[in-house]
Specification:
Length: 199
């Protein structure tokens, strides 16, 4: 079943790639009042079916996008203002997650496929779909290691975390939603490339 889900995910990426930007632009404008930068269209990340998944506390294994202000922004070499994350564990006053934005778009999709296939998850990729995640599973995949981040609830901006339905993961992984501070996306991705090549 997991292989079928992974295959369907790949098919969705191929079938929807030309429609991804159209989807991105057609997403509901309800979040415009939550400080989404008008220049990027990030304000439109939520579809009608995703509006109901907005939350203050994430569910392990689901996919979320949110606006974030890093607490230690002054000392961090770089950080993502718009994390796209799979939470995998809760922490004091926050949670740990894989921020897919620390990988290049094609690497994001590859990691998602490997996680789907590795865990034997089943079901349809809809609003209820989620991965079975924990630290041990994630660290088996080198590309995931640079993506492991801790997030504080107090630093989440706007109206919380916006859940992305499983059927739209292929869109979200491909779109340029990241907004790194202090460094460019190409610089951050290069660091991830270097980390994944090390033993």
């Amino acid at each position: 079943m997991a292989d079928k889900i992974a295959t369907d995910f790949v098919s969705n990426i191929k079938a929807k790639s030309k429609k991804a930007i159209e989807w991105f632009r057609s997403i509901v404008k309800q979040t415009q009042r939550t400080a989404f930068p008008a220049s990027t269209g990030r304000k439109e990340i939520m579809t009608d079916r995703n509006i109901g998944i907005r939350t203050g506390k994430p569910i392990i294994g689901k996919l979320y996008l949110f606006q974030y202000s890093a607490k230690w922004a002054d000392i961090l070499p770089y950080w993502d203002m718009w994390p796209l994350i799979f939470p995998f564990d809760y922490a004091k006053n926050g949670f740990y997650g894989i921020n897919l934005h620390y990988l290049r778009p094609n690497a994001r999709a590859a990691l998602m496929i490997r996680l789907i296939k590795a865990q034997g998850v089943s079901g349809n990729m809809n609003e209820n779909f989620k991965l079975k995640l924990n630290y041990d599973i994630i660290t088996k995949f080198k590309p995931a290691r640079p993506c492991i981040k801790r997030y504080l609830f107090s630093q989440v901006q706007g109206k919380g975390l916006y859940g992305i339905s499983g059927e739209d993961w292929s869109y979200a992984a491909a779109l340029p939603l990241q907004k790194f501070q202090k460094e460019s996306a190409s610089y951050v991705w290069k660091q991830g490339d270097d980390d994944s090549e090390q033993d």
